[in-house]
Design goal:
heterodimer; A: Rossmann fold; Alpha-Beta Plaits; six-stranded mixed beta sheet; B: 2 domains; four-stranded mixed beta sheet; elongated
Chain lengths: 311, 381
């Protein structure tokens, strides 16, 4: 069963097309990774799913119900963890969770139970009477999550939930995402940290210029680029490097340079390693290390979009 | 509606568990009463403070002083000629009556005696004293004419006049002008506080946008219209409290009689509460941030309150300013209250009330139109 189904979704801001005829489906029980560089259209899509933005075309279904005609039902089943903290600094942790859970119609003993459950889940029950201003960045992020899950949504959308926090809090949040998934929640997870997505997501969509340009499991995405490989060459300096000449070597698709590391994307079937080494030796460029990397999500993203995720 | 009530309850809880907010929303409006007291003094019967400079020092001049002291609502003190100017300019005295040398002799000769009345408060103070003195001196002239210049006869007639058995019973009507003025002064200040409170509460909408809590609110089963409705309800509750507390304190604690039944005045004030909320929503709809909303509020609210006569009578302003004031809701509200104090009924002031309601309606419509034109994720409606 599809928890979320998007068909031909379009959103324009004036002449700018933020989301361009996009289609996507998220199945029940998935942790679905949503990747895209800044401006790709991820946040606009999330805002439309959350009912914050009107669409200019297409449809969005939550649990097989169109959100345009079943807005309340859709919202009752969604929990949003926004990228920016959305908590009241002048309310205690308990009051924050209680307030937002109350918007979903919870009252009395049930409300109290759900609030405590959410606070236990994010490990903040002992801090329930504290104000967020006394919290660390990681604790605030956890409270941000608690506010989104107290009403037990079926679909949780997490937009960059680990931005700017310490590794310990990040691990806590990643573990929480897995736990929520085990408890039956479907999760849509966006992050700039490719390793997080690779670690926890069962399926991933890559978005670029308002369109989903690739979608599938990690393995399926990597398979898209198995005809290429990355060769990383670390050199002493790149002063004498002639990029054009390096690209002339048979099989080389593209190169990118970061400080003294040259990343060469080459066709898999062409055995050109000797030529590449010869290229550096002949130009008296000292090689410090050389390694061939198996394709990962970062490579997939770079190959498909021509940009790094953090661009 | 359940969600709206939840939002309202939460906002009110947040306001009334914060001492600073209680102070600014409930106690600050009472400052208007203190300002009125500072401007008009105590609320007891209006007493005129008159200083007598007796330069004649005759029996007649002393009796004249006693006569003035015996009048209702006048407090008399003997002062020296050198201190008169200082005491009048400092406000210690409302006026000074100077009985020049030869006062007694002039009366005995049937001539007009030299009396100087000094005041900086104009005819409203001097006319009252002059009228009584003219009457008293007129009687003395009659006695003098009857005595035909004989001092002994005059003294006998004068003693008989003083000891006359007939007694005139005088009943003073209560002077309500000061109470009315104090009421208008208090209400004028309250209007500005109401406008500021409404502005502050509507500004919360912008603050929610800025701190991103609106994102979560809007992703919950609540839409922009319900959210703004909850803000309007909170606004109206706070302003009702402000009006009721201020009017209760004014009438029951400070004893200022407004000259209008309590609930009638409260009802009229609620029309202005609607205007305040409407105006604050317009500002919120047009402002791009809470900072610009504050700036807009200051730019609109304080000058219009000054122009509309919230702090001083509109009559003392130039005619052009008075004409501008006619386009301000504060002016219509104050005018309604003034007319009610004069004895008009609410029914006869339906045009005033309709105008106030029209102000509110126009403001709400502008705000709704502007909110509706927003096409980005920061919009609500």
């Amino acid at each position: 069963m599809n928890v979320l189904e998007i068909k031909n979704l379009t959103k324009k801001f004036g002449d700018f097309i933020a989301v361009d005829n996009m289609s996507l489906a998220v199945q029940e029980g998935e942790i679905f990774g949503f990747l895209g560089s800044n401006g790709a259209g991820k946040s606009t899509t999330i805002n439309m799913i959350a009912g914050l933005l009107q669409t200019n075309g297409g449809e969005i279904k939550i649990l097989d119900k169109n959100i345009a005609s079943h807005s309340k039902l859709a919202k009752m089943n969604i929990g949003i963890v926004p990228q920016d903290l959305a908590i009241y600094e002048d309310m205690t942790a308990y009051e924050n969770v209680r307030f937002f859970a109350g918007l979903y119609g919870l009252r009395g003993a049930e409300l109290k139970e759900r609030v405590e459950e959410a606070l236990v889940f994010v490990g903040l029950l002992d801090k329930q009477k504290s104000l967020p201003k006394d919290f660390s960045g990681g604790m605030k992020r956890r409270l941000n999550i608690a506010c989104a899950i107290a009403h037990r949504p079926k679909l949780i959308i997490m937009d960059e939930p680990t931005v700017g926090i310490d590794p310990q809090s990040r691990n806590y949040i990643l573990t929480s995402v897995r736990k929520l998934n085990e408890m039956g929640c479907t999760v849509i997870y966006t992050s700039h940290y490719m390793e997080e997505v690779e670690e926890i997501c069962s399926r991933i969509a890559i978005m670029d210029h308002g369109k989903v340009i690739a979608e599938g499991t990690k393995e399926q995405l990597k398979a898209i680029i198995t005809d290429t490989r990355d060769i990383w060459v670390e050199v002493k300096n790149t002063e004498n490097l002639e990029e054009a000449a390096l690209k002339e070597i048979k099989g080389v698709n593209s190169i990118s340079i970061e400080e003294n590391v040259i990343k060469i994307n080459s066709q898999s079937e062409v055995n050109n390693l000797n030529h590449i080494i010869q290229f550096f030796i002949s130009r008296l460029i000292e090689i410090r290390s050389l390694q061939e990397q198996a394709p990962n999500l970062e490579t997939v993203f770079l190959t498909l979009t021509g940009r790094n995720l953090r661009d | 509606m359940k969600e709206v009530l939840w939002l309202v309850a939460n906002s009110l809880r947040s306001i009334f568990t914060n001492k600073r907010r209680i102070f600014s929303y409930v106690l600050v409006p009472l400052l208007g009463i203190f300002i009125a007291f500072m401007a008009y003094g105590d609320t007891g019967p209006a007493k005129l403070h008159a200083g007598i400079v007796d330069l004649d020092k005759s029996t007649l001049s002393k009796n004249t002083t006693s006569f003035i002291a015996g009048l209702d609502n006048i407090k008399v003190s003997n002062v020296s000629q050198t201190t008169v100017k200082n005491k009048i300019s400092s406000g210690t005295l409302d006026c000074a009556i100077i009985l020049e040398p030869g006062f007694s002799k002039a009366i005995m000769n049937g001539e007009k005696p030299e009396i100087e009345i000094v005041s900086i408060k104009g005819a409203q103070v001097t006319a009252f004293i002059k009228a009584y003195l003219n009457n008293y001196i007129g009687n003395l002239h009659s006695l003098s004419t009857a005595a035909n210049g004989d001092t002994a006869v005059f003294n006998t007639l004068y003693q008989n006049y003083k000891n006359a058995e007939f007694k005139v019973s005088a009943h003073s009507l209560k002077d309500t002008s000061k109470n009315n003025d104090m009421t208008i002064q208090t209400i004028g200040f309250l209007l500005m506080i109401m406008l500021n409170s409404a502005g502050g509460l509507s500004e919360l909408i912008l603050k929610e946008k800025e701190n991103r809590t609106y994102f979560r609110l809007m992703s919950a089963p609540i839409d922009g219209k319900k959210y703004v409705l909850s803000n309007i309800i909170v606004n109206m509750v706070i302003m009702t409290i402000q009006v009721v507390v201020t009017l209760t304190a004014m009438t029951q604690v400070f004893g200022i009689s407004a000259g209008i039944p309590f609930w009638e005045m409260t009802g009229v004030m609620m029309f202005f509460a609607l205007v305040s909320v409407g105006l604050s929503l317009v500002i919120t709809a047009f402002a791009t941030s809470s900072t610009s909303a504050s700036a807009l509020q200051n730019l609109i609210m304080t000058p219009t309150c000054l122009l509309a006569g919230c702090f001083w009578p509109v009559e003392i302003m130039p005619k052009t300013a008075q004409k501008i004031a006619d386009f301000l809701p504060q002016r219509w509200l104050l005018d309604t209250l003034t007319e009610l104090q004069k004895g008009h009924t609410l029914g006869s002031l339906s045009l005033n009330l309709a105008t106030l309601f029209a102000f509110a309606l126009v403001f709400f419509m502008i705000a709704i139109y502007k909110f509706g034109r927003n096409n980005n994720v920061r919009s609500f409606i």
